[in-house]
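Data deposition worksheet. Section B asks for the primary sequence of the deposited chain exactly as it was used as input, without tags or linkers unless they were present during the calculation. Section C holds the resulting structure in token form. Section D is free text for depositor observations; keep each observation to a single sentence. Incomplete worksheets are returned to the depositor.
Section A, Depositor: J.P.
Section B:
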Amino acid sequence: MESKRQKKIASVLQRDLAEIFRRQAASHFPGTLITVSKVRVSADLGLVRSYLSVFPIEKGDDVIEFVSKNAPRIRAELAKQVRNQLRIIPALFYHLDDSMEYEANIEKILRDGGENPIL
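Section C:
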């Protein structure tokens, strides 16, 4: 169960990371929408897992590769933005959020009259 502190930090980091990725998408991935769909903060506040949703879906791997290579620069930029709220910037890990792809696949199966598991 997340504490109030974890939730507050997750909210702040999600907002600021979203802004950073909005700028990154505009300059490095034109025509791509990068959304920070979820942020999870560990109990000791030292580790953050950020889940990125990418549209179009095909560019997801490229975005994750870019973010991994530029992680120190992104962390430094985040540190500038949250310096008044956090003393220590946690270690950041990025994951591709494939929930939109999963939903689209289910919707396609239902639309195309796929096999109904209920029947």
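Section D:
The first strand starts at residue 33 and ends at 41.
The radius of gyration is 17 Å.
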